[in-house]
Design goal:
Helix content is 38%, strand content 18%. The protein has 239 residues and is α/β, with parallel strands linked by helices. It has a 5-stranded parallel sheet with strand order 2-1-6-5-7, sandwiched between helices. Helix 8 packs across helix 9. It starts with a strand and ends with a helix. The protein binds 6-chloroguanine.
């Protein structure tokens, strides 16, 4: 069972996310377990403090190293598979998350997420314990919790047995070089808009061809970068 620990000053954020839907079911099936670890439990003093002023001056506070070190030690001592743990620091300075990276993480025995804030973690945490720095894209969010949950979700759904239907992972955008095709369900007409005729035809071959065309059209117009790569890969060895 994959052990996933999330080190954070805001464990409630984590509990809310892992307590619903697929992530919850993954835990109920015994495929993964989540441990949201409150960093305050590893801080000093009656009013546990997690951050302090930056050496050298400047604006903003810096999260102190020690609570992270203690929390990582705690996790590695309490949950099995600690030897194989990846310690992930979500940060805008990291490598941008890809499906490939998520697949790699999904093979680890354990993951530890270190939730920091945009400007503030003592560099020695990076040096001593972090194995992977990951960004979720070129924009800023306030804390590491939401990025950690994005990464966690994308990883857990790839753990074998989590998705009832392995197919559904395979047909997702990015598991595949093309974006997904449009989906429709009942009713056939809503607000004057109709389901494309071909999907009602029962003609599996025609449906397959239509879906492929839709995927190509979408990819070409929305993601020229993916389209270019797709065309290049499909022309290899053709000529
Ligand atoms: Cl991983 N963290 C924060 N705070 N902001 C981000 C990010 C991560 N990735 C993109 N923006």
């Amino acid at each position: 069972m994959m052990q996933i620990s999330i080190l954070t000053p805001f464990p409630n954020i984590v509990e809310a996310i892992v307590g619903e839907s697929i992530l919850r079911r993954a835990r109920e099936k015994g495929l993964v377990d989540y441990h949201s670890i409150d960093l305050h439990d590893f801080a000093e003093g009656d009013y546990p403090q997690l951050d302090d002023y930056p050496f050298g001056g400047g604006s903003g506070m810096v999260m102190m190293a020690e609570p992270f070190f203690k929390a990582v030690d705690y996790v590695q001592g309490h949950f099995p598979g600690s030897g194989q743990m990846r310690v992930i620091l979500p940060t805008p300075q990291g490598e941008i998350l890809t499906q490939k990276k998520s697949r790699e993480f999904s093979k680890a025995e354990g993951l530890i997420f270190i939730c920091s804030h945009y400007k503030g973690i003592d560099e020695r945490v990076r040096e001593a314990v972090v194995t992977d720095e990951v960004s979720i894209g070129d924009y800023v969010v306030t804390g590491g919790e939401l990025p950690a949950m994005v990464i966690l979700d994308s990883v857990v759904r790839l753990v074998p047995g989590v998705l009832g239907d392995e197919e559904s992972a395979l047909s997702d955008s990015f598991a595949n070089p093309l974006l997904d095709y449009p989906h429709y369900t009942r009713p056939e007409t809503t607000r004057g808009m109709h389901v494309p005729e071909v999907l009602l035809s029962g003609h599996h071959k025609r449906i397959e061809v239509w879906r492929k065309k839709q995927r190509e059209k979408r990819t070409r117009s929305r993601r020229p970068d993916l389209w270019k790569r797709y065309v290049e890969e499909n022309s290899k060895g053709d000529g």
